[in-house]
């Protein structure tokens, strides 16, 4: 069977860095299992039509992966690394990426075994951006109470009414996407936390000092936001076996969009919770108090810090690769600068 009808597909897959065997498998699926799409035939077709099957030259791919490891640390496997590279416009087959990872960064398999947990507050902006969920699924943690309350409150606005608005299940029945939480912990939260614990052990940080807590919160929060963005973008662009790529699966979001006036902000939602259920939620605590008396003083300190550290993403990139010194030095500099300007 001629491969000509599949020329556009072959060209696109080749650009993505897929091998001839991977392209052969994809076309076989597209054709419903037809014959004539062997690995050998794909290679011959590409050679006849001057299509480069190797995507990036090996040395270029190694360079891109090395740069990515310098930013993400050693914990990204081949699928997440493929997603991270795709976000940056670099396309290569998973098998090639996995081979490069094993070659240039041998400890990555061991480092990837770390696990953890985190939870991000994103209910309102997520619904506004992507639409109303038909069903929210969580475990039995108390941190989800407000989320479930709002989901039930807005349940009449869902696209599909047959399902219950939410479902609480054991963590053993987690959805695939929930595996991103351990990923975020190991790739975002643990490195700064380890550095902070070292500073406390060395008695260089007094975590009972409100100004110190404020500086720790400001800098670490910004670094974690950078890290979370990296992980989420990589996750959304990586392939989940048997499912597909999250970016493709999400499409334009949930079919049911709702106006923002229906979604209360945190304080309003908490008050509605108290009024309707007769109980209160634990208020968000403040970690450190802003010590600046004027906005001018605050701006002065921020500018002085920015002169010394213009790109704080580098602090995180070094920390996730177990080099905590730049982050520690930046934090101590921020504390000193803040004291000087308050």
TrEMBL record:
InterPro entries: Integrase_dom_put. Residues 127-250 form the Integrase core domain. It comes from the Eukaryota. It holds the Pfam family rva_4. This is Integrase core domain-containing protein.
């Amino acid at each position: 069977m001629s491969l000509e009808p599949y020329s556009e597909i072959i060209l696109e897959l080749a650009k993505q860095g897929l091998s001839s065997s991977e392209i052969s498998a994809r076309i076989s699926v597209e054709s419903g299992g037809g014959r004539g799409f062997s690995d050998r035939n794909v290679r011959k077709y590409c050679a006849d039509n001057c299509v480069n099957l190797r995507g990036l030259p090996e040395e270029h791919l190694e360079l891109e992966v090395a740069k990515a490891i310098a930013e993400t640390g050693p914990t990204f496997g081949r699928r997440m690394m493929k997603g991270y590279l795709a976000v940056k416009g670099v396309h290569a087959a998973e098998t090639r990426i996995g081979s490069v990872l094993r070659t240039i960064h041998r400890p990555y398999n061991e480092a990837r075994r770390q696990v953890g947990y985190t939870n991000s507050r994103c209910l309102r902006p997520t619904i506004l951006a992507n639409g109303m969920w038909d069903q929210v699924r969580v475990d039995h943690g108390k941190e989800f109470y407000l989320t479930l309350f709002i989901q039930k409150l807005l349940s009449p606005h869902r696209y599909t009414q047959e399902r219950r608005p939410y479902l609480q299940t054991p963590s053993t029945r987690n959805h695939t996407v929930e595996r991103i939480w351990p990923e975020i912990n190991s790739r975002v939260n643990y490195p700064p936390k380890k550095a902070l614990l070292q500073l406390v052990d060395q008695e260089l940080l007094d975590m009972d000092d409100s100004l110190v807590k404020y500086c720790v919160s400001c800098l670490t929060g910004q670094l974690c936001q950078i890290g979370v963005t990296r992980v989420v973008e990589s996750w959304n662009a990586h392939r989940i076996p048997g499912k597909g790529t999250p970016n493709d699966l999400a499409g334009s979001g949930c079919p049911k969009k709702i106006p923002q006036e229906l979604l209360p902000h945190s304080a309003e939602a908490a008050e509605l919770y108290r009024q309707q259920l007769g109980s209160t939620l634990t208020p968000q605590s403040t970690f450190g108090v802003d010590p600046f008396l004027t906005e001018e003083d605050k701006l002065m300190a921020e500018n002085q810090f920015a002169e010394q550290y213009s790109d704080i993403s580098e602090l995180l990139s070094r920390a996730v690769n177990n080099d905590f010194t730049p982050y520690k030095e930046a934090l101590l500099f921020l504390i000193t600068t803040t004291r000087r300007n308050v």
